[in-house]
Amino acid sequence: MISFLARRIFAALPVMFLVALIAFSLLYFAPGDPAAVIAGDMAQPADIAAIRETIGLNQPFHVRLGIFLWNTFRGDLGISIFSHKPVTALIAQRLEPTLSLAVLTIIISIAVAVPLGTLAAWRARGLIDRIAMAIGILGFSVPVFVIAYLMIWFLSVKLAWFPVQGYTPLATNWSGWFYNLILPALSLSTVYIALITRITRASVIEVLSQDYIRTARSKGLSEHVVLLRHALRNAAVPIATIVGIGVALLMGGVVVTETVFAIPGLGRLLVDAILQRDYPVIQGVLILLSAIYVAVNLLVDISYAIFDPRIRN
Amino acid sequence: MVETVLSVRNLEVAFLSGHGRSQVVNGISFDVNPGETLAIVGESGSGKSVTSLAITRLLDARSSEVKGQILLNGRDLTVLPEREMRKVRGGEIGMIFQEPMTSLNPVLPVGKQLSETLVLHRKMSVSEARAETVRLFDRVSIPAAATRLDDFPHQFSGGMRQRVMIAMALACRPKLLIADEPTTALDVTIQAEILQLLRQLQAEEQMSILFITHDMGVVAEIAHRTLVMFRGNLVEHGDTVDIFHEPKNNYTRTLLAAVPRLGSMTGTSEPAHFVLPFQDQQPLPPQKAETSSTRKPTTEKAPTVLEVRDLVTRFDINNGFMGRLGGRVHAVENISFNLKAGETLSVVGESGCGKSTTGRSIMRLEHPLSGEIVVDGQDLMKCSAAELRKARTKMQMIFQDPYASLNPRIRIGDAIAEPMLLHGMTNRRESKDRVAQLLREVGLLPDMMRRFPHEFSGGQRQRISIARALAVRPKLIIADEAVSALDVSVKAQVVNLMLDLQKGMNLSYLFISHDMAVVERISHRVAVMYLGEIVEIGPRASIFGNPMHPYTKRLLSAVPVPEPRERGKRPAPPIRELPSPIRPPNYIAPKREYREVSAGHICQEWDRSEWAQ
């Protein structure tokens, strides 16, 4: 198990290197002179040359790449062109809201989808199955922002149960944090509930047709033991895969949801940075998101090994 | 009067689907007495497995309909509430299934899979259950039982997994054990061990066994009474000895005639047809029994079609750190043989011995490490890709699974024509006539060429595979377990067809099989493989009549004898785990010595300490 972990972590390193390389090339090959952008509209050529010298733009490609990689490794992602603040500081401010939203969304999705999908598979073509599949189609076909606005209109404006928008940091007040996040997380989770329910159902149906399930029943085990102890763990690998993909997709979905609910998260930082051509910020967010993807993939791989002893070797 | 353990009355089972209702068991009745083994025999579709699942109510109630009475010690199981029925399953009735590879849950430790039954039915605590599990593993002779509880099923061999299944089924001392084809997926030597174990446990526990099988040899080995099923009906029922010696029903007679019997070929050297009293509707070519012992062997002066010299095929296992070489599977190790025109050489051995890899290496579907493969004078190991493609018209392969080896979306006529068109041997228009002719040759009708594979039975599909192989007029056919998946009566017909085709076209067969009785019937010569090496090779009569190598002897003695009067007369084979052919990367294969036993019969010298028993 430990050698499995070591191998997986080791394999993630070249991926991160490649991501850093692409992020660096993005700035290197982007049109326009970063020094000119930093210097501003009124700058003299001498000023621009001085800036070029100070931030090392005159160095050859490989030297600049080396410096960039070393700085990234140390956790220094550069200075925002627009706000002149360190990129790491900008990201740090925005990380908590986004992670909070993403984690809450995934927790809601799994908590609803896995039991629902399992029940639907157990009584395939029965009533629960039909309801689950109806929810699935609805979750897939209605866009996130429609669900979000419908929930705001009904639950926040009409019934006034939840705040309309905004964000309360976890450190300030955890119940406020939760109240602010629950609607965005719910609306964001609909599509993942649909996705994970479908995969869970298909995976459990497949497992339930296996010989070892017949063996488990022939031992006189009750249906819930058959489902929970024997079936679900065997069905877990495809479910973990789709949850991993879900987390990756979630980062894209977060942008829309953060906009609708006015949450100051990474999504909005990224959108603003792209509109302002703030390359160091784009680079920084790109590297961070990639690191999150790689970490999620690593977690998914590790979960495979936990669920299925045959993968450990 | 003895009280029966299980009494089934007018059992009817029907499956319900969107297309309506189809009856699969038509009102059968039988009893199982205490301490007795009742075998239910039948071919696929006979309803034998459905019967066993109906008894334990494991059929899905939403898609099946069960009528009749099933009395277990006088209690009718069909009307029992589900809660009570769960106590019966695993508590009063234990079950073992066919596939030990898939019948155990792959993600749970075996010890836990057994002890959960003990906790459930015998109300043991977890630690008591663990201790009892060790005892049960010991009873079914799992070596080092106490250390293996936390291992997972994939860490056990097939035979050991079936022992785990048996231990599990016996955990609560059931009165009735239902064994559904428990040895079908196992090698013969393992099958013999498992049958021996079941007999011994039955005697100790005074347990009744309902044994479901398609194999008459196994029936003769284990059953006191036998029940023959055909398409959902009970066609004959009686004492096993009577069924074997005075079968009353025509179907039973056909079934028994089709059973390959080891030793039935003594005194002959040529292959022989099965003599079948009743043919099905297949327009088979005319055939008659060969009385060939007086004829001269056909192959003595024939040209050599295939010559294999020092063939080695190994597979790397890259499980080391960062995918480095962790070991090698020595699948085929230094084997040599030749095959003449019109001759059949059978390659026998147990799973993992390298017999299939040998066939695939000759076809160059694998990449052999070294050696020569000379087909019709051409060394395939020195061929370019284009030459190899051309050479493949001289040799064709037939595979085991007739369901998986035909593409379900291609009409069978097109499937048969494909190799001819690929090699430019005919054009599209002419290929029709050739396909029609091929279909007639394998006993099918030319009109069938427009149909898809799912419209055919298993035996018909294997005929189609044979037609496809014959399409390019090969000299050599490599048949990899080509009849192993077929029902006995169909198997006999396909073997007869292969013999007819061989005679008509002077074909050479490399017949890869684990089934010694079929091999005895079909072969001129036999090669026995063990751990990637040929340990003994020679004329069929000599190998079967005078086996020299201890492994050959062991293999032959493990074949079930379809003669119930012989039961228990042969000594039980000692338990022996097949060693692994996986070796460390620095392993050097030992040099082997061979000696000639008689003309053409060559045997490898063996390590006496390894084979001492």
UniProtKB/TrEMBL annotation, chain A:
Predominant subcellular localization, coarse grouping: membrane
Q: Where in the cell is it found?
A: Cell membrane
Which superkingdom does the taxonomy of this entry point to?
A: Bacteria
Query: Could you name the Gene Ontology cellular component terms for this entry?
Result: plasma membrane
The protein's topology relative to the membrane is: Multi-pass membrane protein
Q: Which UniProt keywords apply?
A: Cell membrane, Membrane, Transmembrane, Transmembrane helix, Transport
- Single Gene Ontology MF annotation: dipeptide transmembrane transporter activity
Domain (ABC transmembrane type-1) spans 95-300
Transmembrane residues, as ranges? 9-30, 99-122, 134-156, 176-195, 237-261, 281-307
One short Pfam name that applies is BPD_transp_1_N
Question: Does the record carry Cell membrane as a key word?
Answer: yes
**Which family would the database say this protein is a member of?**
Belongs to the binding-protein-dependent transport system permease family.
Q: What is this protein called?
A: Peptide ABC transporter
> Which organism is this protein's natural source?
Metarhizobium album
